[in-house]
Amino acid sequence: MPSKKQRRRQQKLKRHQWEEVYVDQDGNELDPDEAEQLVKPAKATRAKSQPVERGRRVVEPPSWRRTFKRGALFFPLMLIVVFFVNSGGSTTTQSIVSTVTLMAFFLPFSYFMDSIVWRSYQRRQAKSEPAKKR
């Protein structure tokens, strides 16, 4: 059931007589049928000329350079986590060695994940190209 506020809005909309007036570039008033005929072809040509892919991001091929940059971002974060986890019984050198060991596992795994994402992106592109050619 609509609330009191919603009912008032609906009643307000029904009170007024709305009429759409179409005006061309010269300032002359047009009938609604004429205006629709002028607007539809413009929309159709615009839609055909520029296909828009929304929500799609371009996936770049995997590279060790990008993987090492990502590792450079995560290294300080991992170091801080290792310091807090091993705060009681380890020295600074032990924490750094632990972090380097973690990075030795993280970097190849990150590259492997990039390659998986890249291959799935290539498969999707291959599937969508025949559909676009139709």
Walkthrough of the structure:
The chain has 134 residues and is an all-alpha fold. The protein has a domain of 70 residues. Strands 1-2 form a two-stranded antiparallel ribbon. β1 and β2 form a beta hairpin. The mean pLDDT is 81.
In total, how many beta strands? 2
Helix content: over 70%
Class per helix and strand makeup: mainly alpha
The best one-word shape is elongated
Strand order of the largest sheet: 1-2
The helix tally amounts to 4
Written as H for each helix and E for each strand, in order along the chain, the element string is HEEHHH
Q: How big is the Rg? A: 30 Å
Write the layout of secondary structure elements.
Layout (H helix, E strand, L loop, with lengths): L3 H12 L6 E2 L5 E2 L1 H18 L14 H22 L6 H42 L1
Antiparallel strand pairs: 1-2
Concise account of the structure shown:
With 134 residues, the protein is an all-alpha fold. 70% of the residues lie in helices and 3% in strands.
Features:
134 residues; mainly alpha; two-stranded antiparallel sheet
